[in-house]
Amino acid sequence: MHPILFQFGGFTLRSYGFMAMMGFLTAWLLMHLNRRHARLSEDQASNLLLIAMITGVLGARIFYVALEWELYEDNWWRIIRIDQGGLVFYGGFLLAMASVIGYCRWRKLDVVRVLDVFAPAMSAAHAWGRIGCFLNGCCYGTATSCALGVSYPAASRIPPEDPGARVHPIQLYEAAENLLAVSLYFYLVRKGKRGMAMSAYLLVYGVCRFVNEFFRGDNPFWLGLTPAQWIGLGLIPAGAGLLIYFGRRGGDVGTAA
Fold first, then answer.
1. Are 197 and 116 in contact, with CB atoms under 8 Å apart?
2. Most buried of 31, 116, 173, 248, CB within 10 angstroms?
3. Mean per-residue pLDDT, 53-58
4. 3-state class of 193 per DSSP?
5. Torsion angle of alpha carbons 158, 56, 63, 21, nearest 10°?
6. What residue segments make up the domains of the chain, in order of their start?
7. Which residue intervals of 108-256 are DSSP H helices?
8. What would you report as the CA-atom Rg of the chain, rounded to the nearest whole angstrom?
9. What is the mean pLDDT of residues 111-133?
């Protein structure tokens, strides 16, 4: 557990904030490598990524604070301390996508192809974010005796029921899944038909997140499933249906302008 990477004088570099920055830079690189496949100018690609980043962080924070309101009702100032962690991916995903779609309609861009280009960028950024979660000690896993288990300092109270016990490094599992998926989405952007990268993202992430939640030790359950699993149950059929739909369409292969 290394929530602080280093300190120099009055400057503190927190691991979560640093990993978020690395995620943004990696997403920026992938967006610009693929922007021509969505007929985006350099400015449009940068604007879209900036909009997605700002609204994504806002949505992720709002969702987290809503779920964990008891942590903030007496300490409102802590709501803005996102450098210490406390983001819910689905909240950020939903608000960021709504903002991106709105921008595309305003600028008369092909929404589907833009979302295709976003798929590898989002997956890479998410991988960095999960590494930040691991170092920060949030989004931790359930107790385990397997060889992959890790132990956080007992003072961190992870897991709460048995501080210091070995837990699944679920954050690293998810980071690895996202990194592996980047190659698939990158390929589909360039060689797949319009909409396939976006659809594959919804399907793959929905499945992975649904399974991963069984190994999470910090989420509440609603009617036998976590909130993320309920959302995943919507993403999985949506992604599969869209993948079949776009895959059956003739032509329209992703090529640069």
1. yes
2. 116
3. 90
4. strand
5. 20
6. 12-248
7. 111-136, 170-191, 196-212, 227-248
8. 19
9. 95
CA-to-CA distance for 238 and 240, rounded, in angstroms? 6
Is the pLDDT score of 220 beyond 80? no
Tokens of 235: 């993403």
Contact 175, 233 (CB under 8 A): no
Whether the Cβ atoms of residue 164 and residue 151 lie closer than 8 Å to each other = yes
Residue 12 has a pLDDT of 82
- Residue 172 burial (10 A CB sphere; 0-12, 13-18, 19+): middle
Q: Are 114 and 104 in contact (CB under 8 A)?
A: yes
151 has which bridge partners?
166
- What is the CB neighbour count within 10 angstroms for residue 4? 13
Instruction: Name the pTM for this structure.
Output: 0.87
Please confirm whether the linkage preceding 160 is cis (ω < 30° from 0).
no
**Residue 212 to residue 205: CA distance in whole angstroms:** 10
Is 20 exposed, middle or buried, given 0-12, 13-18 or 19+ CB atoms closer than 10 A? buried
Length of the chain: 257
Q: Report the candidate in 194, 46, 188, 189 with the shortest Cα–Cα distance to residue 117.
A: 189
Query: Rounded to an integer, what is the distance from CA 72 to the centroid of its chain?
Result: 23
Distance between CA atoms of 227 and 234, rounded to whole angstroms?
11
Look up residue 39 and give its two tokens. 């007929």
Give yes or no for a contact between 114 and 100, defined as CB atoms under 8 angstroms apart: yes
Token reading at 224:
């036998």
User: Which of 144, 210, 202, 137 is CA-nearest to residue 172?
Assistant: 137
